[in-house]
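Checklist before submission:
- one chain only
- standard amino acids only
- sequence pasted in full

Submission:
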Amino acid sequence: MSKARGFLQEFQEFAVRGNMIDLAVGVIIGAAFGKIIDSLVKDIIMPIISFIVGGEVDFTNQFWVLRTPEGYSGPETYDALTKAGAVVLSWGNFLTIFINFILLAFVVFCLVKAVNKARDRVFHREAAEPAAPAPPPEDVALLREIRDLLKK
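Returned file contents:
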């Protein structure tokens, strides 16, 4: 019974420790931030790109059928073929997800860069001004004076 109590107490200390709480908060905020970034890419950036390109930037329905089940005579859509058991190489879906990833990574990079720049302006204003060099220690100053006198 004592070992179980010690184990539970050790687990409680681990779970309540600051790092664990910080990690949990980070995961929750990261998930919410991911939804914001996903919406930014999907709802704002992709429509602008579609407008510039002049069409839909969605390749999800692009695929190659590698093998159709025997006797299949249904529609040649991705959903119908996969439900029928066809072997389908869905390269368009991969390409769409890859493009979304690149755009998402670019947006996150720009946001992090902007936040870092703002943080530097706010918190490091004093650090931008060079500090005056500290005066040399007294013994070093005395040795320099002796050196200068000996040169004369």
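Reviewer check: The CA atoms of residues 59 and 92 lie 4 Å apart.
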